[in-house]
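INFO batch 0412 | record 1 of 1 | parsing
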Amino acid sequence: MRYFISAGEASGDVHGAQVIRELRQLDPEAEITFLGGDDMARAAGHAPMIHYRDMAYMGFIDVARHLPQVLGNLSAAKRAIRDSRPDAVVLIDYPGFNLKLAEYAHGLGLPVHYYIAPKLWAWKEYRIEKLRRYVDRLYSILPFEPEWFGERGVKAEYVGNPSVEEVEQAMVAMPSDEEFRAAHGLDGRPILALVPGSRMGEIKANLPVMDAVARRHPGLQTVVAGAPSIDTEVYRQFTDYPVIHASTLQLMSYSRAALVTSGTASLESALAGAPQVVCYRAVGWKWAHDLFTHILKIPYCSLPNLITGRIDRKAREEVNRKAAETGVRGWIIPEMLVHNCSPDKVDAQLTPLLDDTDERIAQLEGYAEVKRRLSTTSSAARNVARNIFDSVK
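INFO prediction complete | emitting tokens
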């Protein structure tokens, strides 16, 4: 069978590689054309048609600056779908790009599978109509999503969360703390992990704040988690702390605490057991924060907070009301967003996590609840691959 798979960023590359490996177990003769990265290339046995490092643009300005390349990538992907006529088109996250491919593939009469449902419960709910029209099978990795999509006329299936399996596998093959430190030239101080994201815009916005906070804790060994597609020299523009690539889960698991840019990494940090503060700056104006929280329909931004809480506007209003009355946020993980993502405010949330405080204990207890809610009996990638294969065989 022929498969076309599209993943537009680092996390999608990891998830896509897992699906490819499972598909090839089920279909040894599978012919796979894909947009992705090095992990998918290793799983497929050949290079991507387009590498995600040439696709992962963030925000309106970044996309506008690279618009010719974005449109060129989209045209190339459509041509590949048209020419190869795959038995299944598999889209992984990255909705701004992939929903356009869904519409095109549907117009050609090709079955469309969407893995990692777009987070429309947070924003851009208007995209629900495209999912309803153009996607044949929608696979969710968050346990509260099927109900949310179902209420809006879109059937979604919870297949498990790939981060759970990734972390479990990494833990099994993990070196000891001493071996990890020796391999990367680290000393014996407790580790503070800086995880500034996988996109250039995220790194530029968040790493300077993280660096400033880290310098207030000279008793810690600060280490930057490098994204696979970002050269070390990029990080050197904002910090002189050591950068370790391709070992983020190991780094977080041996860290006393972490500063993490909001996204999949916040969930990975929770599964790895590293207490954290979520940081997301982008711009630092209060009016931008107010606009941001008005647009969002959810009480939180980080996945561990969402998984253990409710996601509707009423819940957010209740959280905000209680916070105004008591000064205590109803979160597992502190979220320092936009103008609140400053060295002073981030450090005020980080410092209590460094000792055996009530704040640290509460966060670790919250992590246990996250794991319970995500638990499934089989691999997310295996479930997705089986559904895809069964639909085309």
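INFO post-check: The first strand starts at residue 2 and ends at 7.
INFO record closed
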